[in-house]
Design brief:
Helices cover 22% and strands 24% of the residues. It is α+β, with helices and mostly antiparallel strands. The protein has a single domain, classed as Beta Complex (Metal Binding Protein, Guanine Nucleotide Exchange Factor, Chain A).
């Protein structure tokens, strides 16, 4: 019986998660990814030392070096109150709780970002082509978007919980 694409992807990510976030950040982060284009300029910028002081080590690895948190590790997976999910790096509002859904993947998922909140670029790390999602204001890595989400968009914005902050309405 064939394995579903999502199941295969999750199995691979679970294996990678076991290798540790530091390994992912070092091997596949911005500093080591030759496939990335020239650095972009964002309206909210900090020095590397300022980012390290502002963020937890795990949030720094994800937001600044494109690591991936361990699936099912974020408290935001079970956050069901009305409110707004913002960038943990710069506090830009990114997603409304009205667009959140349980994708079963282990990461907070949404079917639509707020207007002018995120930007996307092609990510060719890990031997596959994906659409990376980052905060349009600070450039922080949030996760990836896939075309297997629910109506009305059919999209699944699969975000790292540690890259988000939740504010109840």
């Amino acid at each position: 019986m064939p394995i579903a694409r999502r199941t295969a992807l999750l199995s691979g990510l679970n294996l990678l998660a076991g290798a540790g976030i530091a390994t992912l950040a070092a091997g596949f982060g911005r500093a080591g990814a030759a496939a990335k284009s020239a650095p972009e300029h964002f309206e909210f910028t900090l020095t590397d030392d300022q980012w390290k002081a502002r963020l937890s080590p795990q949030a720094y690895a994800v937001l600044r070096h494109e690591a991936t948190e361990t699936p099912f590790s974020s408290a935001l997976n079970s956050e069901h109150r009305k409110g707004t999910f913002s960038c943990a790096g710069c506090a830009l509002a990114l997603f409304s709780s009205d667009t959140k859904f349980d994708s079963g993947t282990g990461w907070p998922s949404f079917f639509r970002p707020l207007p002018n909140a995120v930007a996307q670029q092609t990510d060719t790390t890990l031997g596959m082509v994906r659409d990376e999602v980052h905060c349009r204001r600070c450039g922080g890595h949030l996760g990836h978007v896939f075309d297997d989400g629910p109506k009305p968009t059919g999209l699944r914005y699969c975000m790292n919980g540690v890259a988000l902050a939740f504010t109840p309405a």
